[in-house]
Design brief:
With 102 residues, this protein is mainly beta. Helices cover 0% and strands 49% of the residues. The protein is globular and about 40 Å long. The protein starts with a strand and ends with a strand.
Length: 102
């Protein structure tokens, strides 16, 4: 999994690419990015399957903030990003959330 940050010069935004490699999602049909930036709604931010089998999505996020997020795989499995900036306990107490710091 990877996170690529590209800070915009003309706006206080960061173009963030979230990607899950094909090795982690070889037999997966759907992946959604769920987090603070979309109200933790599991249907709002679908990730697109790439030609190489990876899933990715690009978001423009406000700089100077931290965002908690996780990946929802095939509607049943929650996964963290292995390259998140940090991790924090989820409000459910049974897992951690990935955090991106911008």
């Amino acid at each position: 999994m990877s996170i690529k940050k590209q800070y915009l010069k003309t706006k206080p935004l960061c173009k963030v690419t979230f990607q899950i490699p094909k090795e982690a999602v070889a037999t997966v049909k759907k992946v959604y990015l769920v987090g603070d930036f979309n109200g933790w709604d599991p249907d709002v931010t679908p990730m697109k399957k790439q030609k190489d089998g990876a899933f990715s999505v690009i978001l423009n996020l406000e700089q100077g903030r931290e965002y908690q997020f996780r990946y929802l795989i095939d509607g049943t499995k929650w996964e963290n990003d292995w390259n998140a900036d940090k991790y924090v306990p989820s409000s459910y107490g049974d897992a951690e959330n990935s955090v991106i710091v911008l």
